[in-house]
UniProtKB/TrEMBL annotation:
Domain of life where this protein originates: Bacteria
Source species taxonomy: Bacteria, Bacillati, Actinomycetota, Actinomycetes, Kitasatosporales
Signal peptide boundaries: none
InterPro entries xrefs: Mannose-1P_guanyltransferase (IPR050486), NTP_transferase_dom (IPR005835), Nucleotide-diphossugar_trans (IPR029044)
SUPFAM superfamilies in alphabetical order: Nucleotide-diphospho-sugar transferases
Domain Nucleotidyl transferase: 3-227
Stated name of the protein: Sugar phosphate nucleotidyltransferase
Length: 237
């Protein structure tokens, strides 16, 4: 099984932590980087190959990960000379990828079964499978519904339930057909194109542990929780 880890972003929202370190290498706990945790999880799930799409401070990632042999994997690299969006880096890799593969962000902390996501994707025949998580959003204001300047409904500080993308995807190589390598391609653009073509993505619903370490508050939470979650995230460690 093959995974592509997207590790080329600048981590702007996580500054100042990412001023000198690429976001996937910020430490979690006393001994581990986020990317190390992800690679160890992928290896334990049976993934044997991984491509790291790197850009900002990519040489530090390359020096840290090397050829992946320390995790029993074969790791290669694809370098972004300019930002290509979430899916753009895959276009230049297309000939190096199997028919189906996993794509994920390099800053995800979760006990998701990555192999099961890919199995479901293969079995479904979907062009894209999106791992999703339930989120409840609290609105801090009274919400008005209006019609022709008249208030027709009012809800005081409602909560709204959504399913959000976890930043982990099963993808089929053929789904990338028709896009031009070297040009940016966002996840949003790909999903909208699939919906327009009436070839919808599938959802893989997950309700375990998931944290997208995109902001300082999330990073602080990850470090605070890691000691109690370590056995869950790094089984056998």
């Amino acid at each position: 099984m093959h995974a592509v880890i997207l590790a080329g972003g600048k981590g702007v929202r996580l500054r100042p932590y990412t001023t000198a370190l690429p976001k996937p290498l910020v430490p979690i706990g006393d001994q581990h980087a986020i990317l190390e945790i992800v690679l160890r999880q992928l290896s334990a799930a049976g993934f044997t190959r991984c491509t790291l799409a790197i850009g900002h401070l990519g040489e530090i990632i390359r020096a840290y990960v090397g050829d992946g042999s320390q995790w029993g994997m074969t790791v290669d690299y694809a370098t972004e000379d300019s930002p290509l969006g979430t899916m753009g880096p895959l276009l230049g890799l297309r000939d190096r990828l199997p028919e189906t593969f996993l794509v994920m962000n390099g800053d995800v902390l979760t006990d998701l079964d990555y192999a099961d996501v890919l199995r479901h994707h293969r079995d479904s025949g979907a062009p894209l499978t999106i791992a999703t998580y339930a989120r409840k959003v609290h609105i801090d204001f009274g919400v008005l519904t209006t019609d022709a300047s008249k208030v027709v409904a009012f809800t005081e500080k409602p909560s709204m339930d959504y399913r959000v993308s976890m930043g982990v995807y099963g993808l089929s190589r053929a789904t990338l057909d028709g896009y031009t390598p070297g040009l940016p391609l966002g996840f949003d653009e790909l999903v909208l194109d699939l919906l327009k073509a009436q070839n919808p993505p599938y959802a893989y619903e997950f309700d375990g542990y998931w944290l997208d370490i995109g902001r300082p508050d999330d990073y602080d939470r990850a470090n605070a929780e890691f000691t109690t979650r370590k056995s869950l995230l790094l089984k056998g460690a």
